[in-house]
Amino acid sequence: MTENVPHSTFLEGTNPLQKGNKRCSAESPSECAHAHKLLELTLEKIVEPVLILDKIGTISFCNGGAQKLFQHNDGPLTGKYLINAAQFLEEKTRIPFTFNFDAIFAGDFPNHSLQLVLIDSKQREHLIKLSVAPLLTSDGRLSGAILIMHDITYIHKMETELFKTRKIESVGILASGIAHDFNNILTGIVTNLFMARTLSPTNSKSNQLILEAEKEAFRASTLTKQLLSFAQGETPVKETMSVCTILEDSIGYCLSGTNVESNLSIAADIWNFSVDRGQMGQVIQNLIRNGKESMPDGGTLFINATNISINDSVSPSDTAYFLPIPWGLYIKLTVNDTGKGIDPCDLDKIFDPYFTTKPDHSGLGLTTVFAIVKKHDGYITARSTPGVGTTITVYLPAISNKHETPKLSSAKLTKGNNRRILIMDDNDIIRMVVTRLLTKHGYRVTSTTHGAAAVEAYEAALQENDVYQACIMDLTVPGGMGALEATQQIQAIDESAKVIVFSGYSNDPILIDYAQHGFAGVLVKPFSIEDFSAILSSVLE
């Protein structure tokens, strides 16, 4: 692309296309025609759109690039006034841009390179960079102007998307740090609430209120998980569970106080699945919210969960037969609203990042849903009829047997019987509440603030022949040794050492493959007393 070209050098200061050009009159007609043809061929070969205007703003030449940019299919642009060929707008203000031809032809155009919005004949917008220069004859007389346009719509869009992606990455990094501290605080709150609940009568009002506070604390912990799942591609921390629990909790949470009713249907023999509880809750909540928002005047949201076995016995007429997922057992979850539906032109875009038809939305909700379902080796489809409604269908790998992750039937820790536990965490509250909880149940507890101190404590216990039956260590200690390095050093002197790792960074890959790193168990902060008890009991036994 040519920009900011001095008048004296542009095309050697001539325009052979302009009638009455004196240079042409001094040459033979054949030479003039040859020069005319040569310039035409040169400009036609230029990829960027090029226009030549006469002194009143009429298009005297238009190459193929300009014809394509203007989307003018009713014949050539030559002979038309520029202001009639397309609409030009100021990029930022969106007000019509007025070409000052007198300024252009006088060489006083305010800027040789402008950025404008061009609206073509099909009403599609293009962001263009426009370069303008006057054309002079060999004797210095004004003959017209040349306009070179560069369509930067795609480049601008990519730059915008890159900027958004970088912002999300920055938010993700910030969220990771906040999540650790936030989940530490919640762990202290949850543990203290549990201890308060054990001191109040089981059926009392205070006991019930404390229990509700515990539930809300765990719900608060899902906020960081939701952000991390999109911003940093959080790896699912899966557990075997029933879809019933997530559906019932999500429906009540999203539709409470609205004018939308729910119609929930779950197969009596519904299989279990292995999912990340927080991420799958986010999937269902997003689908419910989308359905609710499509019915601003109220309506019914139909939610259905059934078992489906995709194999060679499935009829080719069944949509599931052609899904790009391995054959096997799946839970088929459908969310159907009775709203206005989705325009067919938009249906294929609803899972694209930032696509939204609602000006006050980010366009990330269904993108996040798509990403989470994919991470769970599932698939999601959408169909819609304008004026009738939309149906979103999610297929998730199922587990046919009724086996769930073992949980203690009550919130009581196994008796310590004077066994020793080593705790390592840089957070004072975590050490205090866990120590208090274990001590109350008959354990002898040593607490340390970093990995090096934990290694020293373990070595001392070995020398005293009073070993620790289990260690509970924080994965990350700012500025100090964390659980991974400490465990490696401890197991180097005692290969039978059992270490439970816990962390507020729920997206850390070490938590997914904890056994490969020498850990006997894993806890994600904040953890319930039931989870804590189950893990500790399994390690000790």
- Unreliable stretches, pLDDT < 50, 5 or more residues? 1-26, 402-411
Report the radius of gyration as a whole number of Å: 35 Å
Overall strand count: 18
Cα-to-Cα separation, first versus last residue = 74 Å
Q: State which percent range the strand residues make up.
A: 15-25%
List the total number of helices. 16
Question: Largest beta sheet, briefly?
Answer: 7 strands, mixed
Give the overall form.
elongated
Structural class: alpha/beta
Residues in helix, %: 25-40%
Mean pLDDT: 78
Descriptive keywords:
disordered N terminus, seven-stranded mixed beta sheet, 18 strands, 541 residues, alpha/beta
Describe the structure.
- By secondary structure, the protein is of the alpha/beta class.
- Helices cover 39% and strands 22% of the residues.
- It contains 16 helices and 18 strands.
- The strands form three sheets. Strands 7, 8, 9, 10, 11, 12 and 13 form a seven-stranded mixed beta sheet that branches.
- A hairpin with a 5-residue loop joins strand 4 and strand 5.
